[in-house]
Write a structure and sequence with these properties.
It is a multi-pass membrane protein. The chain is mainly α. It has 15 helices and 2 strands.
């Protein structure tokens, strides 16, 4: 029997403390989702209280108070789902930690929403339903509330199953379903709906093709050359300039419209000047950063990390500027209709409404974003800083190209399409090299078809899940919205 020595007593105490520590860690892990749900309920309640304060708390303002709660719920879901598309590639490439990505995204999403989010929003989601079709203001308010609630529920379901979906399309489906339930099929602009349906295909294809083209360029001009470091010193500043030009043009269109009128030509000129300037400034920095690096692919990843982090921050800023209206557009419409007893296609967004949207997106990201960030960043295909940079630059260029062509596109579809584009290009390139290698080999050592299928670089299960979620987003949100409209009508809102 061992003696009861101080050493043995300390050993027993350490074992007991380790058991308690493991139990505490397990309890914290299990309770983490409950913390997020509890904090979200507090935020939704505070949003409703803020609406009560700003509307004077009068009985007729009950619809605005409830709509503010729905808008806060929608904003939380946008943060949980949509923001993953901007930060996922940077996290998957290990250029950012999960905590760092969440911090950067929360700051830049809020800044984009508050600084560059438009003062005027098309509350009918880009003309999907005709305001003139609503002779009763209460029916219009009910339709906007149903659209908000149904879109939030659908995005919440998609986040739960691990599918990044378009929050814009969710709101579009919600507005369409509520509009049909309230005023019939004639109130929907089916031409606009057709253009949006076309964007289901255009957005991911355009994003994927551009991302694959940039990756092909990097392989051709930097990776597959004898002196990789010298090539990187030449071409990485060019790629940084191209990324800067795209972001500067986009942000000029979004952010400067409050100060001066900016058309596409002016925005492209601003982008070109900014791109040339930053490309030139980055050249000496890249040269200094590359000193002492070995002539190998691993060294190239170092040179893309900082540009990738910057691009992720700019994507978050642009997303906050563009997509906050998905959370607060219908809410702003309810506020306007309640205050003016009228219906309008475009209204100003009150500051308190914009703050609800900005804070909700940030809180949703912090509490629920890591799941989708991890899925987009590492579970679709393997990303490194170069591949992730291709996704980021593709998103920026595609949005500008779509704006120039007047195409309604989804930032979610573009970003995830870029990830797919990079993965499928790598598959094609790897298969091409394998065919060349095996062409002269005896049949005995050639890979069987089953093994070739196992080595696919894009996870087909995630690909099929995401495509299915994209296809059913608008009809699913529309059906949910019609049900929510009937429920709100029954409750007397």
């Amino acid at each position: 029997m061992p003696q009861d020595t101080p050493t043995n007593r300390w050993k027993t105490l350490d074992q007991d403390l380790n058991r308690l520590s493991r139990l505490e860690a397990a309890s914290m892990y299990a309770s983490r989702p409950l913390v997020g749900v509890g904090a979200s309920l507090v935020f939704v309640t505070l949003a409703a209280l803020a609406a009560a304060i700003f509307t004077g708390g009068e009985p007729q303002s009950l619809a605005v108070i409830v709509a503010a709660a729905f808008g806060a719920y929608m904003a939380l879901n946008i943060g949980a789902n949509d923001v993953a598309n901007n930060m996922g590639p940077a996290v998957g490439a290990k250029a950012l930690s999960m905590l760092g990505a969440i911090a950067i995204a929360a700051i830049f999403e809020s800044a984009g929403a508050l600084l560059a989010g438009g003062d005027v929003v098309a509350t009918i989601s880009k003309g999907i339903i005709d305001p003139a079709g609503f002779t009763d203001v209460r029916m219009f308010i009910r339709a906007m509330m149903a659209a908000l609630l149904s879109a939030a529920i659908w995005v919440n379901i998609a986040t739960w199953v691990g599918a990044p979906v378009s929050t814009t399309h969710s709101v579009v489906g919600g507005v369409m379903g509520a509009g049909i339930a309230a005023a019939g099929l004639a109130t929907v602009d089916w031409g606009t709906m057709g253009a949006i349906a076309a964007s289901w295909v255009i957005s991911p294809l355009l994003g994927g093709v551009i991302a694959a083209a940039v990756l092909a360029f990097i392989k051709w001009r930097i990776i597959y050359v004898e002196d990789k470091i010298a090539a990187a010193r030449t071409w990485v500043p060019v790629l940084i300039g191209l990324m800067t030009a795209a972001f500067a043009a986009y942000l000029a269109l979004k952010g400067l419209k409050r100060i001066i009128k900016i058309d596409m030509t002016d925005a492209l000129l601003i982008g070109a000047v900014a791109g040339i300037a930053l490309g030139a400034l980055s050249a000496p920095l890249i040269r200094r950063q590359s000193e002492g690096l070995e002539n190998r692919n691993r060294s190239l990843k170092v040179l893309f990390r900082i540009p990738l982090v910057v691009s992720a921050a700019l994507l978050s800023f642009a997303h906050g500027a563009n997509d906050v209206a998905n959370a607060v557009g219908p809410l702003a419409a309810v506020v306007y209709a309640q205050q003016s007893a009228g219906v309008a296609g475009e209204v100003s967004i009150p500051l308190w409404v914009m703050i609800i949207g900005a804070l909700g997106i940030s809180f949703g990201l912090v509490f629920f974003g890591p799941k989708l960030i991890g899925m987009v960043g590492s579970q679709i295909t393997k990303l490194n800083p170069m591949r992730a940079y291709c996704v980021a630059i593709s998103a920026a260029i595609t949005v500008i190209a779509a704006s120039w062509l007047g195409l309604p596109v989804s930032s979610t579809h573009i970003a995830v399409g870029g990830v797919f584009g990079v993965g499928f290009f790598r598959e094609w390139h790897a298969a091409r090299r394998a065919r060349k290698f095996q062409a002269g080999q005896p049949p005995a050592i050639r890979l069987p078809g089953q093994e070739r299928a196992r080595r696919k670089l894009v996870r087909r299960s995630h690909f099929l899940t995401i495509i299915a979620a994209w296809v059913i987003t608008v009809p699913a949100a529309a059906l949910l919205s019609a049900g929510c409209f009937a429920l709100l009508h029954g409750l007397g809102f």
